[in-house]
């Protein structure tokens, strides 16, 4: 009996190793934007040290990665897929048992809208509504024409240029004295917000989250008073030839983690982690602002997140797994 008891720790240890090894080699798509590379690095570290996976980051981008996962079952995990533009293809792949939806990586979903600085709303709460914006159009002076008001749209060539300009027409902002201003680039749009904020001047325009800008500067999304008409948004507002745009708020942009069906079966414990793991937009806005301020890559940002946001990520894991990750972090 004593020999049996003495052998138990060895048996349990061997079972734990075997459970870890069952995870095997895992490939994780490392997309080429900051939130995606942060999350991919977080997943790699947790899978490697918490679940014993042989985790590897591979270069990725939205369409090539999803196509490769559907057709070749590689890579195993896409941590951050913005799915609006090809949802039908993904749904078909899930129905055919090629892919699995792990869960929403952004618990709030991707967010778009028309925004104003919070300091304006603090002074006049009506500016959180489109009626208040129209009634106070003269606050938002055009940078090149003091007799006009400025609405900053999305940069030319982006999909949001279509939606922001169609909603500009639907809201009939031109009749209130507004002109749609093309910021020229994402940097131009960011610069316009930063300049206004530093001088506490009025600003009104399109933006999205999660982003570093909304982590640095507190902005309020303007309420159109319309609710969301998702069908009209997709059928008309997103289309270049939308003839009769109607007012609707932007619907939530679904952003999910997907895995291959094969991987979900191979590593159910990891799949459960991916189904649990999610970030709020406020958390990501803060993290993206930190990345920009510190010129941090995904690996450095991962270490910052795991060190400074323990109350967040430990909630995704069992106590035993969190202990393993913490031990690895101390030696990182």
TrEMBL record:
InterPro entries assigned: ABC_Gly_betaine_transp_sub-bd
- Where in the numbering of this chain does the ABC-type glycine betaine transport system substrate-binding domain appear? 25-307
Q: What are the boundaries of the signal sequence? A: 1-19
Q: Which domain of life is it from?
A: Bacteria
Pfam families the record matches: OpuAC
The UniProt keyword set, sorted, is: Signal
Q: What protein am I looking at?
A: ABC transporter substrate-binding protein
């Amino acid at each position: 009996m004593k020999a049996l008891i003495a052998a138990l720790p060895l048996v349990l240890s061997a079972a734990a190793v075997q459970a870890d090894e069952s995870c095997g080699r895992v490939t994780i798509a490392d997309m080429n934007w900051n939130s995606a590379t942060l999350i991919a690095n977080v997943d790699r570290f947790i899978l490697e040290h918490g679940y014993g996976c042989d985790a590897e980051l591979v270069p990725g981008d939205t369409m090539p990665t999803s196509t490769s996962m559907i057709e070749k079952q590689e890579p195993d995990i896409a941590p951050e897929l913005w799915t609006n533009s090809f949802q039908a293809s993904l749904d078909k792949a899930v129905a055919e048992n090629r892919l699995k939806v792990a869960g929403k990586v952004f618990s709030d979903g991707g967010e778009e809208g028309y925004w104003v600085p919070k300091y304006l709303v603090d002074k006049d709460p009506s500016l959180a509504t489109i009626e208040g914006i129209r009634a106070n159009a003269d606050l938002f002076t055009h940078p090149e024409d003091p007799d006009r008001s400025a609405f900053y749209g999305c940069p030319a060539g982006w999909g949001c240029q279509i939606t922001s300009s169609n909603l500009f027409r639907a809201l009939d902002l031109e009749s209130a004295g507004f002109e749609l201003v093309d910021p020229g680039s994402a940097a131009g749009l960011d610069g316009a917000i930063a300049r206004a904020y530093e001088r506490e001047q009025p600003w009104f325009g399109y933006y999205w989250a999660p982003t570093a800008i909304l982590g640095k500067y507190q902005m309020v999304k303007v309420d159109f008073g319309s609710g969301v008409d998702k069908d009209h948004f997709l059928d008309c507002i997103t289309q270049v030839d939308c003839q009769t745009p109607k007012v609707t708020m932007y619907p939530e942009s679904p952003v999910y983690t997907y895995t291959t069906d094969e991987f979900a079966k191979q590593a159910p414990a990891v799949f459960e982690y991916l189904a649990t793991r999610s970030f709020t937009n406020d958390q990501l806005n803060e993290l993206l602002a930190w990345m920009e301020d510190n010129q941090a890559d995904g690996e450095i940002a991962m270490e910052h997140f795991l060190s400074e946001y323990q109350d967040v990520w430990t909630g995704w894991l069992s106590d035993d797994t969190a202990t393993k990750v913490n031990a690895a972090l101390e030696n990182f």
